[in-house]
Amino acid sequence: MENKKTSSNGIDVLHRPCQRGTVAHLIAGTTSLQNHLVLGCIYPETAGVIAVADYPTREWSKREIKDAGRMLGRTVPYDSDMAGAVAAFNVAHNWRAAHAYPLMRERIRLTTISKGLTAGRIKRMDSIRKKLRRSPISLDRMQDLAGIRAILPTMEDVNRVRRRYSEDLRTSDYVAEPKPGGYRSIHLIKPFDEAGAGAMYRGQKVEIQLRTHLQHVWATAVEAIGNMRGEDLKAGEGNRGWLRLLTLMSGVIAEREGLPQGADVPMDQAERNAELRDLCHSLSAIAALTSFRSVVRETESRSGSGFYLVQMNAETGEVTVSAQSSFRMGESSYNSMVDSGERQQSILVAVDSMAALRAAYPNYFLDVATFIELLADATNINMGLTAPIPTSAIDRLSLDFLKAWKR
Asked: Which single residue of 13, 42, 280, 323 could bond 303 by disulfide (Cβ 3.0 to 4.6 Å)?
C-alpha cells in the first residue's frame, strides 16, 4: 500500500500501513515540510503515529451505557448485586476509554491552532459519578468524558483560537457570564467528525476549554485548595470563607484582564480588597497556602505515548507520576486504582512532557505559587516568608520550540 495524503480538520494526514498491517496516521504540521507535529510537540524530521488499533472502541450499546450510568449514579449495591456493580463499572470504563482516540486527534488540532500549551484528560470515574448524582444527564450523553484545554497568554489569544472553530459548536462562554463561584473559561463541545479509519468514533464529543494563563491559575488553585482541605470547592461545597475568598480573587484577575468582575464582587476596588484582606487574616490564608508542599516521584520523565498517570495524595503531599508506553497500559493502571474523595486522586492525562504536565495540572502538584503572589499583591499583605515562593510551573515552562513556528 502506497502512502496517501489527505486533509482532516485542517491538518495534513499521511496514511500508511503500520507494522500490524492496519492504517496509521502520520500527522504533519502544515506550516513547514521540515517540521512534523508529534502529539502536540514539534520535532524536526520526525512524525508522530496515532494508530486507531492502539485505542479502545465502544463495546456496549447506548442503552447498556445509560443503564450502567444509572447504577453508578446511586450508591453501588455491592452487597446485594456485586456482579451487576462490576458489570456497570466495566461498561463505564470502556465508554470513557473509547474517547481517547478523539481526544488525541482533537488535541493535535488544538495545538496546531493555538500554538501554545495544550493538555487532555479522560474524565475521572469519581468525577463522572459525582456528575451523574448531581445532574439529570445520563452517561451515554455526557459531553466532557474527553476534555482538552489550551492555556493562552491573553483573551485576545483565546478569542483568536475560538474563531478558528465553527460558530455552530455548542458554546458555554463563562468569560462573558462567569459561573457563580467565579470560574472563567470558554467551553466548546465538538462532535468528532473524522472520516476513514477513525470514522467509528464519529459523533463522540470532545470538550475544548480555552482559558488565559491567569484564569488557569485561579481554576487550578481552586482544585489544589480543595484537595488540601478535602472539600469540593470546585462544586461550591466547603468552607464559606474560602469560597468567598476565591470568588473575590476571580474578580481581581478579571480586573487585571479588563473583564467584568461579576455580580458577586464589589465594584469598588478598595472595598473588594478590604474584604479580601479580612478573609486572609481570618483564614490565615497565605500561611495555609504557603504550607502546601509536594514530593514528586517520577518513574520515567518522557512518555512515548504522550500519556502520564498521576497519583496525588494530599494527606502525605506525595505525587507519583509514571510515563505510559501506551494509552491502553495507562488506562489499565488507572482502572486498578481507588480514589478517596478530594484528597487522594488519580488521573490519566495527555501532555508532551513533565514540564507541560506541571504547567497544565499544577493542582496535582499542590502548586499555588502564582495565586499566592496575586493574593498578596491584592491585599498588600507582607508575607514574611523565610524562603521565596517557588516559581509556578507554568512560568518555568519553556516554549522556545514555538519560536520557529511560522505564523
From this structure: 323
Pairing outcome for strands 4-8 and 318-324: unpaired
Residue 259 backbone dihedrals phi, psi, to 5 degrees: -110, 160
Selecting among 207, 223, 231, 342, the annotated active-site residue is 207
Residue 167 CA to residue 141 CA, distance in Å, equals 21
Instruction: Choose among 55, 28, 25: nearest CA to 146.
Output: 55
Helix (H, G, I), strand (E, B) or coil at 318: strand
Q: pTM to 2 decimals?
A: 0.81
Q: 16 pLDDT exceeds 70? A: no
Q: What is the DSSP string of 262-312?
A: -TTS-SSHHHHHHHHHHHHHHHTHHHHHHT---EEEES-S--SSSEEEEEE
Question: Is 373 labeled as catalytic in the residue annotation?
Answer: no
Share of the chain above pLDDT 70, in %: 78
Q: In a 3-state reduction of DSSP, which class is residue 348? A: strand
The amino acid occupying position 266 is P
Find all residues with CB under 8 Å of 61, minimum gap 6, and list them: none
